[in-house]
Amino acid sequence: MSDAEIITTVVTAAIFFDGNQTKACDYMKDNHLVANMLEKSRFNQRLHGISILMNNLFHQARMILNEVINCTEYFLDSFPVSMCDNIRIFNVKLIKSEEYRGYIVSKKHYFYGVRVQLLTIKSCVPVEFVFLPSSAAV
Questions:
Q1: Residue 78, beta-bridge partner list
Q2: Residue range 1-53, pLDDT digits in tens
Q3: Burial (CB count <10 Å: 0-12, 13-18, 19+), residue 124
Q4: Which of 90, 102, 110 is nearest to 132 (CA)?
Q5: Where exactly are the structural domains of the chain?
Q6: Most buried residue, 104, 110, 112, 118, by most Cβ within 10 Å?
Q7: What is the pLDDT of residues 50-90, one digit of tens each?
């Protein structure tokens, strides 16, 4: 399976299957769109292996978008991506640090996870994003 087929499957998952890569892999395999579909674990290994390539791809797309749109007004927003609520922190095995414990002021709610800082142009098209620990000041 080529890198292009992996990226195509990931984009298909994002557009048509709400990010569910397993459903996208099954769809691509059932409709003979990818000849040699990998198993779930091997697919994820390959996907993580080409993450640098995908980051460069998104960076290039952002640069092209900035050239074409020529926008000077941007919006900056952040939103939480919680792994669990505050009460279940002791069960989390992926990340173990106090900096990932955050607070959502509008909901008066503690959570454990990351914050996504999102930069968009005036017409709400995302231009750039970054993942930060949830305790990072916004």
A1: 117
A2: 888 888 888 888 888 988 888 999 999 999 988 888 888 889 888 888 887 77
A3: exposed
A4: 102
A5: 3-49, 71-133
A6: 112
A7: 877 777 777 787 777 766 677 778 888 888 887 776 667 66
State how far Cα 63 lies from the chain centre: 19
Tokens matching residue 114: 């990351």
Which residues are CB-neighbours of 7 under 8 A, at least 6 positions away? 50, 53, 54, 57
Query: 10 Å Cβ neighbour count for 9?
Result: 24
**Nearest residue to 78 (alpha-carbon basis) of 32, 26, 137, 21:** 137
User: Does residue 132 contact residue 99 with C-beta atoms inside 8 Å?
Assistant: no
Separation CA 82–CA 60 (nearest Å) = 29
Q: Count Cβ atoms within 10 A of the Cβ of residue 41 and give its class: 0-12 exposed, 13-18 middle, 19 or more buried.
A: exposed
Structure tokens at 21: 């890569």
Q: What type of residue sits at position 108? A: K
Q: How many C-beta atoms lie closer than 10 Å to residue 109's C-beta?
A: 13
